[in-house]
Structure prediction request, 131 residues.
Amino acid sequence: MTLKELSQLYYLNREIEMDKLRLQELEARALPGAQAITGMPYGPGAVDKVGRYAAEIADLRGIIEAKLRQCLYERSRLERYIAGIDDSLTRQIFQLRFVNGLPWRQVAACIGGGNTGDGCRKVVKRYLERN
Prediction:
C-alpha cells in the first residue's frame, strides 16, 4: 500500500466536512425567511430560488451519502492492512495517523516513550519502503 492510498480516508473525511458545511449554507438560504418577499408577481425570467436550492440540497445529500459509504470501505481496508503489520508500535502509529487522522506530533504524543513526530513519520516511511 502506498502513502497516497493510506491517506485516502483522511481526505475523504475532509471532503465530507466541506460538503456538510456547504449543505448547511444551502439549507440556510432555502429557508423561507432567507428569501426577499416583495409581493411582486412572477414574470418572465423569474427564478424559483427555493426549488433550485432544494435540488442542490438533494444532490449534495446524495454525494455526502456516497462519500460516507466510501469512507466505510476505506476504513475497513485500512484496518485490514494495519492488522497485518507485525510490530505493535508500527501498528499503533499507522492506526493513529491514517485511521484516526492525527497529525504526526499528536501521534508521537499518544505513543509516548520519547518519540517525536519525525520519528513516527520515519517509522511509516521505512515500513512502506520495506513492504
